[in-house]
């Protein structure tokens, strides 16, 4: 998730505050492109001791220091400063393998990360109670109504029923922990995938957890899996991804606007950041399942499920066993086993929540 500003109030315009003084050692690194002065981003971060990450696949760079960070993208003049959209005087460029930023960016936007600004030039620190506290989680029971999902071969259990049963149990556990839970469906109703995403994004939720029951043509396949958004990593994940996409055929409104607030560039930046935290969440859930259940943990996997691709918060999709496996289908008809699955998933979510709050948004000092 793109972290919100917690410690430093930032002026939205350079004319409202003194320019940040450029470190003298950077003068020799300045280069001119099309009449605009640029600096190598990696060199800049080294001088000011800023954590720097570059994703060559998406062309997105993330700068972080304590609870503050900036996200930039090669070829774009749009940046995110602690989640706020800003525009640069010139675009970020990639030249000779180096990411270059305009010098004006250093003077007007790097203030919260540099850490060497004179005290009088920094706005006073502001403590925002509960800024890093989870308030709302979306639970999304997969399928529903005319979209049945997978069907068990031996007992005829239906994925849509099992997913709802597990999600309701997770809801009860998390609500007891004081978390607001919004269900995309509470009964056997068909909800288009685009509507599920819309529910999550409009609620401005902290997390999105989609609950499913797995299936495979290979009857021996069994175990728990948790997915986050990224390129598909194996054949089984590709098959499951294709199966879930079949729900779109029943969706009369499958297209979805990326965001009313973000253009495509900022959307891609947000996805890059959410992907990291989604992976963290998936790991916590899988660890909890492995510790609590003797059902086999197939671990964290990646795929491009629709509901993961278009939600604007950290999102995971859990596959709570294989309904196509005779043994696990028989287990899934046991309410006590469903209780245990729900508890394991919930404990993983709560562990993620506690670490997120303890570190103020997974800040790495």
Map the helices and strands.
Layout: E1 31-33, E2 36-40, H1 41-48, E3 51-55, E4 60-65, E5 68-73, E6 78-81, E7 84-87, E8 93-95, E9 98-102, H2 103-109, H3 111-114, E10 136-141, H4 159-176, E11 180-183, H5 193-203, E12 207-214, E13 224-229, H6 235-245, H7 264-292, E14 297-303, H8 306-310, E15 315-322, H9 326-332, H10 335-358
Parallel strand pairs: 10-11, 10-12, 12-15, 13-14
Antiparallel strand pairs: 1-2, 2-9, 3-4, 4-5, 5-6, 6-7, 8-9, 13-15
Helix pairs in contact: 4-10, 7-10
Mean pLDDT: 75
Number of strands: 15
Shape: elongated
What is the CATH topology assignment of the largest domain?
Aminopeptidase
Query: Class of the largest domain in CATH?
Result: Alpha Beta
Name the poorly predicted regions.
1-19, 116-130, 231-243, 245-270
CATH architecture classification of the largest domain: 3-Layer(aba) Sandwich
Oligomer: single chain
Kindly report how far apart the N and C termini lie. 18 Å
Largest sheet: 6 strands, mixed
Estimate the strand proportion: 15-25%
Helical residue percent band: 25-40%
Helical segment tally? Answer: 10
User: How does the helix and strand content classify structurally?
Assistant: alpha/beta
Concise summary:
By secondary structure, the protein is an alpha/beta fold. The chain has helices spanning 41-48, 103-109, 111-114, 159-176, 193-203, 235-245, 264-292, 306-310, 326-332, 335-358, and strands spanning 31-33, 36-40, 51-55, 60-65, 68-73, 78-81, 84-87, 93-95, 98-102, 136-141, 180-183, 207-214, 224-229, 297-303, 315-322. β8 (93-95) and β9 form a beta hairpin.
